[in-house]
Specification:
Layout (H helix, E strand, L loop, with lengths): L1 H27 L14 H23 L13
Helix pairs in contact: 1-2
């Protein structure tokens, strides 16, 4: 069950990273109807990129720090 959660975190994190990159690309290259670059018109793309990046960071944080402070059992055999 833990392995499935880890895989799900990886999938969600990578998907959100791809979406963040794509949305930022759309924001950076947003053009108005005349074909001119526009800085304020694609603000929704910037906010979507920021949101996806935050979710990516949360998935990475959960993937890394969920394993800390969990005791591992060591079996000593003689």
């Amino acid at each position: 069950m833990k392995n499935q959660r880890t895989i799900l975190l990886w999938i969600i994190g990578l998907l959100m990273a791809a979406i963040a990159t794509w949305q930022f690309y759309r924001f950076a290259g947003f053009r108005d109807s005349k074909g001119l670059l526009e800085t304020q018109g694609g603000a929704i793309h910037l906010w979507l990129a920021i949101g996806a990046a935050v979710i990516t960071c949360l998935c990475a944080f959960m993937g890394i720090f969920r394993r800390i402070n969990k005791t591992e059992e060591f079996h000593i055999t003689s």
